[in-house]
Amino acid sequence: MGQRSNSSSPTREDDAGHGATENFKMTMLPGGYMGKILQVDLTTRRSRTEPLDRTLAEQYWGGHGFGIRLFYDLVDPAVDPLSPENKLMFGAGPLTGTGAVAASRYVVVSKSPLTNTIACSNSGGFFGPEMKFAGYDVIIFEGRADKPVYVWIENDRVEFRPADKLWGKTPEETDEAVRAATSPHAKVACIGPAGERRSLLAGVVNDRQRLAARSGVGAVMGSKNLKAVAVHGTGSVRLADAEAFWFAALDVLKKVVNDPVSFGSFRAYGTANLVNLINEMGAYPTRNFQEEVFEGAAATSGEAIAEKILVKNRACFACPIACTRVSEVKDGPYQGRGEGPEYETTWAFGALCGVSNLEAIARANFLCRDYGVDSISAGATVACAMELYEKGYAPESDIGFPLRFGDAEAMIRATIMLGERDGKFGARMADGSYRLAAHYGHPELFMGVKKLEMAAYSPRVFQGMALHYATSNRGACHVRGNTVAAELYGIPKYVPPDTLEGKEELVRRPFQNSTAFVDSSGICLFTKFAITHREIVAMMAPATGLDFTFDKSITQGDRIWNMERLFNLRAGFTAADDTLPDRMLEPVPGGPRAGSRAELQKNLETYYQLRGWDEHGVPMKQKLAELGLEDFWGVVGG
Amino acid sequence: MIIHVKLYASLRRYRPGLALGQSFVCAAPDSATVEWLFLEALGLPPEEVAIALVNGIHSERDRLLCDGDTVALWPPIAGG
């Protein structure tokens, strides 16, 4: 049995880590929030709870917001991400677990060992709501266990249990074993073998197949010898004004189920319904971003998935959209079954590797799940390895076999090597394409920013994405500021992808700031094709009883963005890191957008100005005062 | 004039048997627009057509077509 910890209220004499709430008054929160932060010390195998402060809730709202503010207060930006001094936070939003549409989300916040930036990875499923039912808005893991452990949290009881028998297991096996040893009702977040091996591409896997994938947060968990966290709660989320909340929530439900994108295309085809569209536009990065049109797009599209391998849909907590695919390859060398593949995965192991074999792509997806790695970064790393091989920079003797674009079998072999950390080459791949390319003396073949690989939208075609990839606080992620919504689908309003004018404000406010807000609420971003901030705020205010307004929601997103920026600046990043790979400045070689290139420099200066930052990308005093962050003025030199 | 048409996602059910990504040919008068094509020539319900690419470039419904253009059509879709 596990070692039971002592939960107690903090005093100022407690060891370091309680400072988060020093500056805030302690006042009861009427609803939405559970009112508790759980701090779990893996070194001492003790835990304690702190009340969630009202001011923290009012200014940072939840999820992403809580994560960045608490992390900023508690962790030195210079910390070694794989050291015991780094912390790993799970943060739910005030709406998580309320039963509002798609109110399933939680975030995993840490300092990324892949990028050395702040990391905030988002995931759905059922784990986030269960955290709330157990009574917690945030769970913070600190220190390092001396041996592999898992933590079992059932309401206010916290146990540390040995995980030596779990070490080496896939997330599915881990989930099964942990629930058998704790409760069939437990929800489990864990790492796969890649996280145990501290692969910088490892994510945190919850509910067996969902990942908080990017930025190597799984490696942080592995570095703490924390194999899994099981949570079960018998509580529920109080609502300050239930009648007003449900009125707003039912309005959202109606809009979502009547929306042809959310309830139509997503349900039918999942996210991979984009493959043919992005490809026909000539914006579908192919063979490590060498080209932007892929001849195998149709064969590896959402339509093809639906026809050939789709079994059924699956939904997250309280979500009617059910965009998750469950697919199956019944026989042959790529046999397997499970969730996915999503658009990004289909691309990363498809076009980016030049592979047209849908079954092989599905298999790669299942492998990423079993190892517990980010499929975008993993596919991108295999693609980078392919180019290194084809150009003669990485010899076959290092890899062990020919690794060419388009070779599905080799793609799978390389993915397994990456997941297993097999041999020197496998170990290099396991730490991502930046380190791989740099080792072979060709960092220009790394297709990403701040060591995080880019996603499935060409920045040579989508100028908004060019600016967003370059400035996103966690590196070249797409989802934090997915301007493709405006630059293609016309949400909120259509702007041509090649236009430069106005792109800075487009990236800054309706995308970057807005997404940070949504990621704080606990609602899934995919509702935002049907609804806006207004509908989300209309639920948050009655759920929490706090004075949340639309205008405040914009400011809140801005506040998060600036805090993350300050963290990164203190961690050593500069404006020079807001850049793109050189290849993105070369013209697209073919297709409808031949000749197009990323025009980043033209937008960057204006973007800084609009953000209220100086020419070095440092938030200025006036901006910080506007956000109530005047105390942070001067933390960055210059 | 001759227009090459591609239908994707749920619009494919209006041309069963057409291979994914394959285009079919449609005759059109010189003054044909994108809207004329999907409303009159193809008989698609207008609310089902959200995105039109003409030769790979996003086009509004009132865009005039030229001989040999490829028009690809999608219902409301998005992604992440």
What does this structure look like?
The complex is a heterodimer of chains A (638) and B (80). Helices cover 38% and strands 13% of the residues of chain A. By secondary structure, chain A is α+β, with helices and mostly antiparallel strands. Chain A has 3 domains: 3-232, 4-Layer Sandwich (Aldehyde Ferredoxin Oxidoreductase,  A, domain 1), CATH 3.60.9.10; 272-452, Orthogonal Bundle (Aldehyde Ferredoxin Oxidoreductase Protein, subunit A, domain 2); 463-529 and 549-632, Aldehyde Ferredoxin Oxidoreductase Protein, subunit A, domain 3 (Orthogonal Bundle), CATH 1.10.599.10. In chain A, helix 13 crosses helix 15. Chain A starts with a strand and ends in a 12-residue tail after the last helix. Chain B is mainly beta and 80 residues long. Chain B is built from 1 helix and 5 strands; from the N terminus they run E-E-H-E-E-E. Chain B has one helix spanning 34-41, and strands at 2-7, 24-27, 51-54, 57-58, 70-74. A 5-stranded mixed sheet of chain B has the order 2-1-5-3-4, covered by helices on one side. In chain B, strand 3 and strand 4 form a beta hairpin. The longest helix of chain B is centred in the middle third of the chain and has 8 residues, at 34-41. At the A-B interface, helix 8, helix 9, helix 10 and helix 19 of A face strand 4 of B.
